């Protein structure tokens, strides 16, 4: 066994014996709490516990939550799936008149009132049940003190009901990301990097094809724990064709739109991993194909670059005519540039083994040290152009040059960086260089950045950029058309992840510190726009903070 392989084997073995964490000094350096890991306690699979990542099925009817067990109270984390359609039925119905509440036989809450603590409450414009003055529909009002810890008028929704929590499985501790990709045959696949045992967990899900299979399937059986086959990088025989094993500290994950190429970052090493996902043999799961080294330390962010339609069609053709290969943008903690990676599939690779290759590295110029914490890409302008082309190749060639809008959340200084891909083209396709043109001040401690949609005053969907600020307990909503911050959403402590449901104008926010999910109204026709209208799961402070 080579020294590198022996080192990785020892690290994984020690991490699987979780009682060794403190002896190694690892817990104190990576968590805010200093509690010994409990090697024997099974995690309650019906509990939201330090949620670190969220994902939605394409139809918005399934919400996936990755719980990280960050203080090591239990011997594992979990991944849960919730019935988001059922959850939406528990949200308030907005109204402007009593007539709009006829379906529930009640009336519209249009007048101020005084709550139990003596505070005047503004009208909610929510339908009240028949014979009731409770705008929370039986959940009950939170006290002023409770609202300080967990913003929202109403008490939380119990997440444990079987009509909401559809399934849950055990995974390793310290899940850091969660990615959903649709399976062409139906349903989808979740990809979860796990730091504790240095693996990429994968699980098949029913997703937007309910009834087609289990809600979550990672070989868990009666133990409810994902089996070894669904923990890529955890077995001695799992290595690239070149013999390289999965590096430690997997952190970020993204995949090509079709889910065929998966890239994982490793936060303490200058390496990233490439997995290949063959949907034709879906039961085999992702296969580790290549390890790209020689990068700066602490690669944490990765985002797949949307492929122009003309290039996508070219890659489906029997003979390729365009010199274009899919790309990924890679970001590093504390390093002021974005690295472009190119993906070579089995057709392009000389030996038939897919691999990654570095291309351009574009510097991110700001007024101070750059610390990129999130990257979001918006291809809507290019897509709108391509939609008008029909079968015209000349039109598609022109649309390939339409720049992508790129948004980067920066920690130092706290800002949203506004960028775009360059429109310089070679062989009728863009070169995917990245330029930053402006910066907007946001709250300190930015973490996740996503592009989504709201509903405006006319009932039309409009683009917005959402940035969670972990330190400031807020979500910034930026309007790219107006070039300004539209609103700042007050959240609870530690908003770590966000998922947008554009069809229903909702945002789900994972509150890491107090272990619950907040639901934000994204309909500007409502007086409650930009506020948390419900919470899923009982907010619980971390141990030592009660």
Cα-based radius of gyration, to the nearest Å: 24 Å
Strand content: 35-45%
Q: Distance between termini?
A: 48 Å
**Count of helix runs:** 7
Given as residue ranges, the uncertain stretches (5+ residues, pLDDT < 50) are: 1-38
CATH second-level architecture of the largest domain: 7 Propeller
Overall form: globular
Query: How many domain units?
Result: 2
What is the share of helical residues? under 10%
CATH superfamily of the largest domain: YVTN repeat-like/Quinoprotein amine dehydrogenase
Record field, number of beta strands = 35
CATH class of the largest domain: Mainly Beta
Average pLDDT level = 89
| Helical/strand content category | mainly beta
Task: Give a topology summary.
Blueprint: H1 3-16, H2 26-30, E1 51-56, E2 62-67, E3 77-83, H3 84-89, E4 107-108, E5 113-114, E6 120-121, E7 127-128, H4 144-149, E8 165-171, E9 179-182, E10 188-194, E11 199-205, E12 216-217, E13 231-232, E14 250-255, E15 261-266, E16 272-276, E17 287-292, E18 299-304, H5 309-316, E19 327-332, E20 335-344, E21 355-363, E22 372-378, H6 380-387, H7 393-399, E23 405-410, E24 415-421, E25 425-426, E26 429-430, E27 434-441, E28 446-455, E29 461-469, E30 474-479, E31 484-490, E32 495-501, E33 506-511, E34 516-521, E35 532-536
Antiparallel strand pairs: 1-2, 2-3, 3-8, 4-7, 5-6, 9-10, 10-11, 11-12, 11-13, 14-15, 15-16, 16-17, 18-19, 19-20, 20-21, 22-23, 23-24, 24-27, 25-26, 28-29, 29-30, 30-31, 32-33, 33-34, 34-35
């Amino acid at each position: 066994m080579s020294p590198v392989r022996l080192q990785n084997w020892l690290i994984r073995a020690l991490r699987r014996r979780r009682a060794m964490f403190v002896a190694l000094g690892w817990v104190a350096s990576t968590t805010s709490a200093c509690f010994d890991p409990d090697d024997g306690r099974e995690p309650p699979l019906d509990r939201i516990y330090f949620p670190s990542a969220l994902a939605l099925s394409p139809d918005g009817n399934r919400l996936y939550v990755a719980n990280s067990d960050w203080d090591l109270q239990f011997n594992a984390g979990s991944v849960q799936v919730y019935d988001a359609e059922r959850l939406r039925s528990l949200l308030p119905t907005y109204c402007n008149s009593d007539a709009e509440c006829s379906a529930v036989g009640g009336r519209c809450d249009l007048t101020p009132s005084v709550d139990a603590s003596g505070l005047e409450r503004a009208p909610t414009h929510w339908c009240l049940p028949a014979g009731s003055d409770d705008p929370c529909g039986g959940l009950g009002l939170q006290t002023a003190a409770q609202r300080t810890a967990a913003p929202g008028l109403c008490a939380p929704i119990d997440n444990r009901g079987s009509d909401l929590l559809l399934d849950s499985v055990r995974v390793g501790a310290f899940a850091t990301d969660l990615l959903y990709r649709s399976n062409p045959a139906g349903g989808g696949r979740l990809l979860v990097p796990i730091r504790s045992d240095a693996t990429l967990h994968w699980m098949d899900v029913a997703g937007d094809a309910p009834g087609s299979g289990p809600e979550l399937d990672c070989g868990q059986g009666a133990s409810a724990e994902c089996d070894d086959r669904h923990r890529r990088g955890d077995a001695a025989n799992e290595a690239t064709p070149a013999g390289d094993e999965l590096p430690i500290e997997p952190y970020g994950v993204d995949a090509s739109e079709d889910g065929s190429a998966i890239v994982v970052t490793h936060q303490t090493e200058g390496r990233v991993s490439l997995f290949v996902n063959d949907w034709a043999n879906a039961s085999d799961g992702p296969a580790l194909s290549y390890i790209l080294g020689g990068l700066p330390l602490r690669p944490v962010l990765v985002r797949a670059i949307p492929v122009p339609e003309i290039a996508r069609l070219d890659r489906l053709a029997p003979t390729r005519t365009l010199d274009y290969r899919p790309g990924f943008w890679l970001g590093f903690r504390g390093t002021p540039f974005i690295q472009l990676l190119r993906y070579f599939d089995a057709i392009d690779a000389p030996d038939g083994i897919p691999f990654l290759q570095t291309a351009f590295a574009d510097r991110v110029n700001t007024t101070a040290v750059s610390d990129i914490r999130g990257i979001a890409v918006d291809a809507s302008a290019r897509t709108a152009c391509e939609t008008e082309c029909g079968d015209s190749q000349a039109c598609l060639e022109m649309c390939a040059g339409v720049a992508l809008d790129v948004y980067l959340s920066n920690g130092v200084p706290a800002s949203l960086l506004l960028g775009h891909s360059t429109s310089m083209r070679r062989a009728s396709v863009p070169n995917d260089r990245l330029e930053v043109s402006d910066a907007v001040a946001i709250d300190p401690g930015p973490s996740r950045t996503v592009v989504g949609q709201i509903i405006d005053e006319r009932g039309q969907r409009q683009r917005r950029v959402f940035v969670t600020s972990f330190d400031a307990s807020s979500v910034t909503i930026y309007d790219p058309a107006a070039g300004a911050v539209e609103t700042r959403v007050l959240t609870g402590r530690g908003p770590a992840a966000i998922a947008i449901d554009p069809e229903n104008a909702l945002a789900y926010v994972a509150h890491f510190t107090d272990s619950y999910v907040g639901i934000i109204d994204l309909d500007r026709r409502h007086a409650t726009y930009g506020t948390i209208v419900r919470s899923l799961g009982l907010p619980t402070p971390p141990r030592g903070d009660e």
